[in-house]
Amino acid sequence: MATGTPDSQARFGQSVKGLLTEKVNACGTDVIALTKQVLKGSRSSELLGQAARNMVLQEDAILHSEDSLRKMAIITTHLQYHVEQSSDLQDQLNHLLK
């Protein structure tokens, strides 16, 4: 196996070191970018989870409101019945007092 001159070996060594440094820097940059994406994805998952929890809370509030409206409608019907009944009783009382 032939060996090159010490000067050419030094240049080759510097060239390899330079290429390795570039590759290490590129890999470091890629790892940083990947980490940012993972963190962004994690944050997105957190936000989606929070949105889902908020939606469940809103759904419960809506269901409770619907139930309250149904009960108020029943109470309104009963009150209308009592108003009509009171009106009829008042008419009967007026008729008796004449």
TrEMBL record:
Judging by the UniProt lineage, the source's domain of life is Eukaryota
Whose protein is this, by species?
A: Equus asinus (Donkey)
| InterPro entries xref list | BORCS7
Is Membrane found in the keyword set? yes
Which family, according to UniProt? Belongs to the BORCS7 family.
Which keywords label this protein?
A: Lysosome, Membrane
Q: Can you list the GO cellular component terms from the UniProt entry?
A: BORC complex; lysosomal membrane
Query: Per its record, how is this protein called by name?
Result: BLOC-1-related complex subunit 7
- Pfam families to which the protein is assigned, alphabetical: BORCS7
Subcellular location per UniProt equals: Lysosome membrane
